[in-house]
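Lab meeting, action items carried over

1. Structure of the two-component assembly. Owner: GW. Status: complete.
Input record:
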Amino acid sequence: MIADAPVIDFHGHVGNWESVAMLDEPSPMLHAMDAAGVDRACVFNIFHPDGRRANDSTAAFVARHPDRFIGFAYVSPMMPETIEAELTRAIDDLGLQAIKIYPPYTVFPLDHEAWHAIFAFAQERGLVILSHTDDGALSEPRKLGTAAERFPGATFVSGHSGNIEPFRTQAIEMARVHDNFYLETCSTYRQPGVIEKLVAGAGSDRVLFGSDQPLMDPRTQLGKIITADLTDEEKRQVIGGNARRLLGLD
Amino acid sequence: MNELSFRCDSPVLDANVGVGHRHDRPSPVEDAAVLLAEMDRHGVDAALVYPVQGEQVSALDGNDGLHEWVDGADGRLLPLWMASMAPESLEQLQQLHASGLVRAVRLHDTTSTSTPLTSWIYGDLLAWLQQEDLPLWISLADNDPVQLADTLSAFRELRTVLVGAHYTHAPYVLSLLRHLPRSCLELSRHESLGAIEDLVTQVGARRLLYGSYYPRYAMGPVLWGLHRQQIDSRQLQRILDGTARELLSR
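Predicted assembly:
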């Protein structure tokens, strides 16, 4: 909590990735979350395209601290035969609460029909999909926007909000056009005025704080919001209020 | 002011601020007054400023333009002069130093200029800096870490500040600091989970210093994040301005 406002980190990873000093261990994350004032963090494992091993890993991680972590399911269109059954298992049996997708680990742009099975599942269940977005041809925000238009019953979150310009502006435009399109803030690109631009462009009710921990420390990433030129109420929405609403945590 | 707002109330020296327009990157900061206003917003007392024109194109021109930033700033903007591989660059620095104006120097981007950071290219510059006991700022983002480590280790008394370590550098930053015992680490981009607390434990706060990389990055997030580290107040103050003041005072 910060100033009695709940803080929810919408973007966190589990799993091992030694070359960037990432280890599958909750205690360093909890330490940083406690120091920052982060109440809960959404986490997912994107390293196993079959989904099963990834989601088992996420569920086990969450089970160690279910009051602090919220698990998202992961599947890949690279293994389409697994998608529906694995999403069903991850949501219904493992209790994961939303879906994470990562186009750079596939060969399909976000507007390719290979993703439709995932989007259709989310629409049928009314789930949130957090997608990595950036300047790559597979991950452009406008392509996630086509999904938001075609699957209005699902909610799409643009991870990193496109990351850099002009894709950040593109992500904002998608949020303006589609009511089910949200922006998430984590990025190593921390230019002055980024958060203010997201809020001014999309509205403070459409922007979600994320850190990308453990790749990045939530203390610096949350600092982007706290030191931004926003009103207190706007900050309350971004740091946790919007996430609580989207995930039904109220 | 509540927890949703932040302005540092203890002395701060930002050790990494770029000024002026780069050939490919116009700056949003028009002049010293705008920069000082941003510093005031975050409670930053002083900043070490370098001309970004010197990163890839011309240290000579960049340094010529730096005077207009530091003159008339009431001592709040301290010059960080740029150095390139050209003999004329060293001559310029020597003339500035003869006038009592040089406290620190920053190396240009040897990656983009395709001039390997080797002693047979940069040896005269490094030997002169070592002889004059002037610290050298070097961007990890812009210089090959192997060349950097091998070349600098031959200048054992040279004090260096490694700038802009990213999470991709995280696995070997500690090894690099140990390999170069007279080096310090500037923290603008070093935001891997728990990294700052680990470094305080491993190498001590006297080898760490706050920098923002403004305006490439916002000034506030790292500053807020530093205030959420589980370190004592003396260690924090060391990072906020003590290490930088000591580097510049000799």
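2. GW to write a short summary for the group page. Key points so far: The beta strands of chain B are 13-19, 46-51, 77-79, 81-83, 105-107, 136-139, 160-163, 183-186, 208-209. The mean pLDDT of chain B is 96.
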